[in-house]
């Protein structure tokens, strides 16, 4: 941990980020992640990254941009940067209509397609603190027709710190407020004021660091039946979003399913993915 910044450094950092530095930082973040910060989000970046200036005893945000570009330990700093620029608010059983479509329609369709192998592979992209992939594992553990099936759940995120939190599997009562009581009793153990998820459920989820804008690494993910990529694409511009959607589609098996957030949509993808209404949710299926 770096020592406190000097008075001069503090005064400089208080002046905020000038327009040119903001432009350079926005471009750098976009090049690395595809995440877009709008013109009116300069203060947001300033507030989120102020701690990094203090950590490295840097006087200005321009110094921080140079640190990200040229310092020997820049790769380590990127881990911190990614954790600060991404939003990780989530909870178990979020957006229930989509989960209803998943368990009532998508899973039976995949079971029919995979009845010979009796295997289902699911990818929770941008999994944040693990609430989503653990929710899927809980739901599938409670689905009787899947007894003796092999279920693989891959959960990925760009932020290493949030993945460590997800791997620990400890959550507040607020995060678990929508978990069905019988599953909460069966698969969570009180740990002070929080709750730790059971080893049975934890063992069904594999966590991995993955930047959705890293095309070469995304090509390592293949043979997936169902992808959840919810409340993530809203952070990308149309160009980046289209690239990510194409690469996710590449990870899917033919007729595999992609589920995105309620507030998100995909355009210019009709030659790769077709949308269909299932209950109250829109789901995309690979052509």
Automatic annotation (TrEMBL):
<keyword id="KW-0808">Transferase</keyword>
<protein>
    <recommendedName>
        <fullName>protein-glutamate O-methyltransferase</fullName>
        <ecNumber>2.1.1.80</ecNumber>
    </recommendedName>
</protein>
<keyword id="KW-0949">S-adenosyl-L-methionine</keyword>
<dbReference type="GO" id="GO:0008983">
    <property type="term" value="F:protein-glutamate O-methyltransferase activity"/>
</dbReference>
<feature type="domain" description="CheR-type methyltransferase">
    <location>
        <begin position="10"/>
        <end position="287"/>
    </location>
</feature>
<dbReference type="Pfam" id="PF01739">
    <property type="entry name" value="CheR"/>
</dbReference>
<dbReference type="InterPro" id="IPR022642">
    <property type="entry name" value="CheR_C"/>
</dbReference>
<dbReference type="InterPro" id="IPR022641">
    <property type="entry name" value="CheR_N"/>
</dbReference>
<dbReference type="Pfam" id="PF03705">
    <property type="entry name" value="CheR_N"/>
</dbReference>
<dbReference type="InterPro" id="IPR029063">
    <property type="entry name" value="SAM-dependent_MTases_sf"/>
</dbReference>
<dbReference type="InterPro" id="IPR026024">
    <property type="entry name" value="Chemotaxis_MeTrfase_CheR"/>
</dbReference>
<dbReference type="InterPro" id="IPR036804">
    <property type="entry name" value="CheR_N_sf"/>
</dbReference>
<dbReference type="InterPro" id="IPR000780">
    <property type="entry name" value="CheR_MeTrfase"/>
</dbReference>
<keyword id="KW-0489">Methyltransferase</keyword>
<dbReference type="GO" id="GO:0032259">
    <property type="term" value="P:methylation"/>
</dbReference>
<dbReference type="InterPro" id="IPR050903">
    <property type="entry name" value="Bact_Chemotaxis_MeTrfase"/>
</dbReference>
